[in-house]
Structure formats: structure tokens, C-alpha cells
Design a protein that fits this description.
Length: about 290
């Protein structure tokens, strides 16, 4: 149970909450507005849960950084969220899930949900031809986290991966259904469509913001997989098992923190989430 783990391990190096309860918030983080695609799923599947959302916008994008840098960034963010008393952390970032999760998963007194396993599971279940495409950050593609997990789940499946470094800057800049974005997306998808994929994993949480453009370009036969849906379902199952799911029908509270500019995050974030993001505070992690 989460609460037991928290109590049992709270004497460790990270300052942990005394006790996780159903009223404790869930911590969610990403480099920027990408994690809002996970938050949107949480709003659907976990409507009564309070959320602390951290966007590390001072360091976006993560995708071109080294594995060491990505692990170090996660080692700053996770203790910060623990100090806020979170009962669960959702790594709403494909790059952190691929690189930092395997290294850090047992280092903190809190359960952490990553996106790789749920995304791979969904893609394997969806593919009929056994030809899966993956688009993600360069760091995620090069980590081979998805490729390995999919092989584990179904040895005979082919995974064709393309790193898409221009997507995150375009999305953070608010270029969603523009000609520039469409042109860039067409180039990235070309080699995958040539391989006749029937399933496409959106392996970076920013990319579901481009779902409309990607679906148009890929065509109706290609099924887009947003790992967030299954990851949030896993989070719900984990909370239920731990007895810390908030079942009381109260409206959830969302608190937003950024390491960069609050205004920029609120402007683009509200547009992408389709709901107003207000009261965002700028914080320093260490
Ligand atoms: N949205 C994150 C991911 O899922 C981070 C992307 C980035 O900052 O490059 O990988």
C-alpha cells in the first residue's frame, strides 16, 4: 500500500509526507505543456483528485539532453513534489519515463507511474499487422525503452521509430494546426508510412496536442496511441488498491508550478487544455 510505503520509507533521504490519504494530491510533471495531455485524461478518469502540476519550462525541451541530465532533472523534481505531500507521482513525460524511471523507480517513498509500459501494452493490443510506429523525442527513441518493452510483450512485432525534435518547440510556441507544423509532421511520418505501420505511438506527451494533424496525415487506417489513457487507468487501479483513491465527490483543485514564465505557460496551456489555467507560480527547484 502506498501509505505503508510512505510511512516505512519516510526516514530516508527524500523528505516524504507523513501519511498518504485519499485527500493527498497527485504530483504530475513534464518539461512544459506536454503533461497537460495526461492531465486531461486525469480530469476524465480521476475527476476528484487534486493535482500539483509542475512544468519545468526553464529547461524545455528535454528531448535533446543526455541521459545523465534527464536523471538529474528528475532527481530535483521528484523531491520537490514529495515536499508538497503527493500520494502518487505520474511522470507525464515520455523522456523521463524512458530514461529516469528505470534508474529512480525504487529511490523514493512514493509510487511512480511511467508511460512506457501502458503505451506499449496499448500499441501491441491495437496492432493487427504487427508493424508499429513510434514518434518521440530523440532521447526516448535512442533509449530503446519502447522498442524493448514491445519486444518483451510480443517478440514478433516490428517497431519503426522516428525522433521528432521540432515538435516540442512548435507546440510550446503554440504552432498547432499551422502549415509549418503540418509540413514538419509530414516529413517525420513519411518513413513510418512507407513501412506500412497500422499503429502509431505518440511517445512524447506533447504530441497528442497534434493528434488532429497527425491523424489527417497518417490516414484513418493508422490507430494513434496516446499512452496517457492507459497510464491514468493504471494510476487509478494503484490508488484503489492502496486505499488512497479519492471517492468523495468534491471538485478537484489544480495547482500549477513552472520553473520558467508563468504567463507563457498559462496562455498556451489554457488553449491546449481547453480550460483556464490560472494562479501559476514560478518556483526554483533547488
Ligand atoms: N513531453 C515530454 C516527453 O514526453 C518532454 C519533451 C521535451 O521536453 O523534449 O518526452
Amino acid at each position: 500500500m502506498i501509505s505503508e510505503r510512505v510511512v516505512a520509507k519516510s526516514a530516508g533521504s527524500a523528505s516524504a509526507p507523513e501519511k498518504a490519504t485519499p485527500a493527498s494530491p497527485i504530483g504530475v510533471f513534464d518539461s512544459g505543456v506536454g503533461g497537460l495531455t495526461v492531465l486531461a485524461q486525469m480530469m476524465k478518469q480521476l475527476p476528484h483528485e487534486d493535482v500539483i502540476y509542475l512544468a519545468d519550462t526553464a529547461r524545455v525541451p528535454y528531448g535533446g539532453r543526455s541521459a545523465e541530465e534527464i536523471v538529474k532533472i528528475n532527481q530535483e523534481i521528484i523531491p520537490y513534489l514529495l515536499k508538497q505531500g503527493v500520494k502518487l507521482i505520474i511522470m507525464a513525460c515520455g523522456t523521463s519515463s524512458a530514461i529516469a524511471y528505470p534508474v529512480l523507480k525504487d529511490d523514493y517513498p512514493v509510487h511512480m507511474i511511467n508511460l512506457i509500459e501502458p503505451g506499449s501494452r496499448e500499441a501491441v493490443a491495437a496492432s493487427r499487422s504487427g508493424r508499429i510506429g513510434l514518434i518521440a523525442t530523440a532521447a526516448t527513441v535512442n533509449s530503446h525503452a519502447y522498442q524493448k518493452k514491445i519486444k518483451e510483450l510480443a517478440g514478433d512485432i516490428e517497431v519503426h521509430a522516428v525522433g521528432c525534435p521540432l515538435f516540442v518547440p512548435l507546440i510550446e510556441g503554440g504552432f498547432i494546426e499551422t502549415e509549418e507544423t503540418r509540413r514538419v509532421a509530414k516529413d517525420y511520418l513519411k518513413p513510418l508510412l512507407k513501412e506500412k505501420i497500422d499503429t502509431l505511438i505518440l511517445g512524447c506527451t506533447h504530441y497528442p496536442h497534434l493528434s488532429k494533424v497527425l491523424q489527417e496525415l497518417a490516414g484513418p487506417e493508422v490507430r494513434l496511441i496516446d499512452p496517457a489513457e492507459a497510464a491514468v487507468a493504471d494510476a487509478k487501479a494503484m490508488l484503489t488498491k492502496a486505499g488512497t483513491l479519492r471517492t468523495k465527490a468534491v471538485p478537484a483543485k489544480y495547482k500549477y508550478f513552472v520553473t520558467g514564465s508563468p504567463i507563457q505557460f498559462q496562455d498556451i496551456g489554457s488553449r491546449l487544455l481547453g480550460k483556464p489555467i490560472v494562479g501559476t507560480k514560478q518556483v526554483t527547484l533547488i
